[in-house]
Amino acid sequence: MLSKVITISQQKGGTGKTTLAVHLAMAFIKYHNLKVAIIDTDPQGSLGKWFMIRTEKKVSNENLTFKTASLWGAQYESKTLKNDHDIVIIDTPPKIESDARPSIEAADLVLIPMAASHVDFWATGAIVEIAKKANKKILAQINRSSKRSKLIDKTKDFIKSLDLESTQTIIGNRQIYTSSMGEGKTAVEKQRKGNAVDEIKKLSDQILNQLN
Length: 212
Ligand SMILES: Nc1ncnc2c1ncn2[C@@H]1O[C@H](COP(=O)(O)OP(=O)(O)OP(=O)(O)O)[C@@H](O)[C@H]1O
Ligand SMILES: [Mg+2]
Prior knowledge:
Number of strands: 7
CATH superfamily: P-loop containing nucleotide triphosphate hydrolases
Shape: globular
Helix content: 40-55%
Bound molecules: adenosine-5'-triphosphate, magnesium ion
């Protein structure tokens, strides 16, 4: 068992926390043969809805465990789940400033999604500070952005200015991420090859390297 915890966190809503949580989970299972647990700490329950649709449609949940918890509960829950899972992914709600700590404390790696957009930059400082104070390994993840966007260089500069590392994979703005989730699936289950599959697979490789 690897027994590692990844917390996906970002103050700003809609940056792709839940999308990345499920896509990484399924990539770890599919391409790395790992046992994965996902914990939904968001009262919106998007992750839970996804899992429910999945289960109703009888999509395979082999090697996948789903739990809900409060942000505090996630600390305990992830400790327990670590015992019999390779990776535990904690999906967090937006606007968590003061309650972020327990879910960050639980993490081996904090993944912070952001778009190549100034609006996302402005929202990112608080969570970075909390994760740094907790002495956690942090990776910024550029999501929903084109590699060719003029803002990519600015985004990379911004990440550097926070003294952060980012993953080497930019996740594109692709409809398959959204449409697959509506069916309780992920892009890696809907497609055998393609841009989304390529980038998610690469990202899962890189994150595992960072965890090892
Ligand atoms: N790479 C992407 N390409 C296209 N659409 C995306 C991408 N990432 C996320 N989305 C879409 O953006 C919206 C927000 O994504 P998601 O729910 O994953 O964000 P979140 O950070 O979990 O939001 P919240 O803060 O509300 O929990 C969703 O409609 C999702 O399908
Ligand atoms: Mg979410």
